[in-house]
Each structure stands twice: as structure tokens, then as C-alpha cells.
Amino acid sequence: GAHASKAGLFETAGRGALFLDEIQSLKPELQTKLLRVLETRRFRRLGAIRETPFEGRLLCAANVSLAEKVEKGEFREDLFHRIAAVILRVPPLRLRADDVLELTEIFLKDFDPRSTKRFDTEALAFLASYDWPGNVRELKGLVRTLTARVPYPTLGLAEVKEQLTAWEKPQETTDSSERSGAAAGFAVDWSEGLDANVLRLEEWMIRKTLEKSSGNEARERLQLKRSRFYEKLKLFGLFRET
Q: Whole-model pTM above 0.85?
């Protein structure tokens, strides 16, 4: 609230490091503000008159190619070059079997502090060989779900496969040809939360509608108010396509 002074993230970071995860999801207006802070190395707290110097380091992470986002007009090119001074590319989890086993132990300790549960040898071997399309989030979600759902101490291969299959089932349901097409073009990523999936579904629906209709026709078909439609176009970088 504005009634009390509160330090923001840049001020809290001080001379340390500020980590921004999923930087590709930053809205255009916030991209502009972040670029200004990085160029001037100064920021202004909400409601403040004077600016404060930012003396820390900025670390960013993205689970998509920011370069491709720039080409599509979905991410500012000048901001990309500001944050891409040093790039570390982390291989997907399917190529890091040792990490799978180590992360599994870490997540087990997080979700089962009393250390009453464990994966048997067969289950661990399967986890190490699985493709993990959802990467670390999928593994974390699997361990969380199994520790909460399975009542006995040993988590076996059957329980692991059953849970992974349960996550896949919603993608296979179809009631009509249109829903069948939607299932083929959009897949729920069960390693992500509801908000992230809804955002991707919104972008997919708008892109598909724009492929078949003009801007105004697409807006009417999507039953969106003009202001909200333009807001979505800005968010997903679709002005060029309209």
C-alpha cells in the first residue's frame, strides 16, 4: 500500500544479484521500464521523488529462445542485447540423467521432510531414462504429487507411470471436430500452473482466429471488447499480423 514505504526488488538486491525468472513473459511496458533502469543504472521507488542507484547484477532466465521472440516482435531487441552479455544454455533434463536422480532426492526432502518415502530402484531407473518434456518442473510436480497421493513408503514404477499417464489423458478428449483440432494444436503443459497454460491458450486462439479472419472480424469472433483485444495483441506481439 502507498501508506507505508516498502523496498522493491531492485532496492532489496543492493549490490548483490537480482534474478528474474521467465523474462520472456515480461509485458512490453515493463520491458521498457527495465531497459531504462539498466541503461541509467537508476530507479525510482513508487511514490518517491528522488532516484536510487542500482549497483547490483541482473540475472535472467528464459525457457524459450529470446532471439526468436525478438524476431517475432514479442521481445524488445535493445533489451535482449542488454541482458544477453553472457549466455548460459542449460541442456534439457532428458540429457542430464545424473541431475534427475539428484533433483529427485532434493524434491523428496522438500515434500517429505520426515524422509519416510523413497523411490525403488526400478522407478529411479525409469526417471533417469524418461524424456521429461516439462523439464525440471515436471519432475518436481511428479515428486510432489506422488508423495502426497501414495500412502505407503515405497514409490514404485507403477505409481510413476500411472501419474504420468493421468497427466496425458486430458489432451486426448475430443467431443467435436473443432475441439479435436484444438487438442492437436494446443497441449496442456502439466508442469506449468493454470495461469501459464491459460496465457498460452489465449495466444494460440488469437493466432488461429487471425489466420482466418481480419482484425475486426477476429475480435468479434473472440467476443472481446476493442480495448481488451488490442491489449492482447500488444501482449503477444501480434500487431504486425493484423
A: no
